[in-house]
C-alpha cells in the first residue's frame, strides 16, 4: 500500500478497444503537453494547469462571478490572473476546467475495480497530453498497477530525457515519431526531435513490445519524399525486429475543442488520401518495416 500524496491531473478517461493498446482498455488522458502541435485533437490537454473550456449555448454572464463573460464571450485576459477560478466551482455548464486531480492510489484502485472489463489482453493505457510531464506520479501509478497485475501501456511523444527509466514498468510501449527532420519538428511542435530519436533507439533495443506511430499531417510530413525520410530514420533501429509502424491519417475531430479553449484552429481543410497512405506503406515495407492498422 502506497502512502504517497502525489496526484495526477486527468482530463479524460474511458474505455477503448484496441486503438490505445491491445484488448479492451481503460484509457487515462493526463493533463499537460510540452509540444504544441496545431493539429492536436486534444488541445485542452496542453496547458499543465488545465484549460478553461466553454460551452457556447450555456455561456452566460452568470457563468463567471467576476464578470469575465460579456455578450456571450469569455474575456480570457481576465482569467489569466484569476487564482481561484470560482467559475469552475459553480453548478453551471458554461465554463469548466479541463482536468481534475486524482490521488495516485485512488486511480490505481479505480483501475483495479475495472479489471473485469480488461478482456482480450486489455488493461490500462496512460496517454495525454504527454504523460512524462507528470513523470514521478506516472512512475508511481505504473508501479501500483503492476502490483495489481494490470497490463500497462503508455502513449508518449518520446521527448522526456529520462523516459527510459519507465521501460521496466511498461508492458506495451506506444510512441509517436512525428518527423524525421529536427528543424521541421521544432518549427511545428516547438520541441526538438533529437531526444525523441535517442529514446527511439533506447526503447527499440530494450523493450519487447513497441508500436511506433506516424501521424500523417498535410503540409508537415505527408509529401512523397517524406516517406523515404522516415524510412531512413527508422530502419537502423527496427529493421528485422517485431516493431510495427502505424500510419495515422490527419482528421479534424478536435477542431471544436480549439474553439472551446479559446484558440484558433490554423490547420487547412486538407485530407490525407488513401494513395498517400499506400505510398508510405510501400516505401516503409521496402526498407523492411512492417506497417499495421488498428
Brief rundown of the structure:
By secondary structure, this protein is of the alpha/beta class.
Provide keyphrases for this structure.
294 residues, globular, 8 helices, 2 domains, alpha/beta, TIM Barrel
Describe the structure.
With about 290 residues, the chain is an alpha/beta fold. The chain has 2 domains: about 5-50 and about 100-290, Aldolase class I (TIM Barrel); about 50-95, no CATH class. The protein has helices spanning about 75-80, 105-115, 135-145, 180-190, 195-205, 225-240, 255-260, 275-285; strands at about 5-15, 25-30, 50-55, 70, 75, 95, 100-105, 125, 150-155, 170-175, 210-215, 245-250, 290. The strands form 3 sheets. It has a 9-stranded mixed β-sheet with strand order 7-1-2-8-9-10-11-12-13. It has a two-stranded antiparallel ribbon with strand order 3-6. Strands 4-5 form a two-stranded antiparallel ribbon. Helix 6 packs parallel to helix 8. The two termini are about 35 Å apart.
Amino acid at each position: 500500500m502506497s502512502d504517497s500524496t502525489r496526484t495526477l491531473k486527468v482530463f479524460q478517461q474511458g474505455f477503448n478497444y484496441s486503438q490505445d493498446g491491445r484488448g479492451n482498455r481503460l484509457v487515462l488522458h493526463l493533463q499537460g503537453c510540452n509540444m504544441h502541435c496545431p493539429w492536436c485533437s486534444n488541445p485542452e490537454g496542453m496547458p499543465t494547469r488545465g484549460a478553461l473550456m466553454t460551452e457556447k449555448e450555456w455561456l452566460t454572464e452568470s457563468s463567471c462571478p467576476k464578470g469575465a463573460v460579456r455578450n456571450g464571450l469569455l474575456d480570457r485576459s481576465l482569467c489569466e490572473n484569476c487564482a481561484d477560478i470560482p467559475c469552475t466551482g459553480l453548478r453551471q455548464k458554461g465554463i469548466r476546467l479541463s482536468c481534475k486531480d486524482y490521488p495516485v492510489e485512488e486511480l490505481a484502485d479505480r483501475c483495479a475495480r475495472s479489471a473485469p472489463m480488461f478482456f482480450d489482453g486489455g488493461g490500462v493505457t496512460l496517454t495525454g497530453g504527454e504523460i512524462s510531464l507528470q513523470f514521478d506520479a506516472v512512475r508511481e501509478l505504473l508501479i501500483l498497477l503492476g502490483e495489481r497485475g494490470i497490463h500497462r501501456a503508455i502513449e508518449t511523444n518520446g521527448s522526456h530525457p529520462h523516459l527510459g527509466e519507465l521501460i521496466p514498468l511498461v508492458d506495451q510501449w506506444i510512441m509517436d515519431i512525428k518527423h524525421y527532420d529536427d528543424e521541421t519538428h521544432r518549427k511545428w511542435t516547438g520541441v526538438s526531435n533529437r531526444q525523441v530519436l535517442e529514446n527511439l533507439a533506447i526503447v527499440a533495443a530494450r523493450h519487447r513490445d513497441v508500436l511506433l506511430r506516424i501521424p500523417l499531417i498535410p503540409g508537415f510530413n505527408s509529401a512523397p519524399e517524406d516517406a523515404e525520410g522516415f524510412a531512413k530514420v527508422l530502419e537502423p533501429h527496427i529493421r528485422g525486429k517485431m516493431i510495427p509502424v502505424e500510419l495515422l491519417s490527419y482528421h479534424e475531430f478536435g477542431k471544436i475543442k480549439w474553439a472551446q479553449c479559446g484558440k484558433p484552429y490554423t490547420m487547412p481543410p486538407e485530407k490525407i488520401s488513401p494513395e498517400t497512405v499506400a505510398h508510405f506503406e510501400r516505401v516503409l515495407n521496402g526498407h523492411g518495416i512492417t506497417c499495421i492498422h488498428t
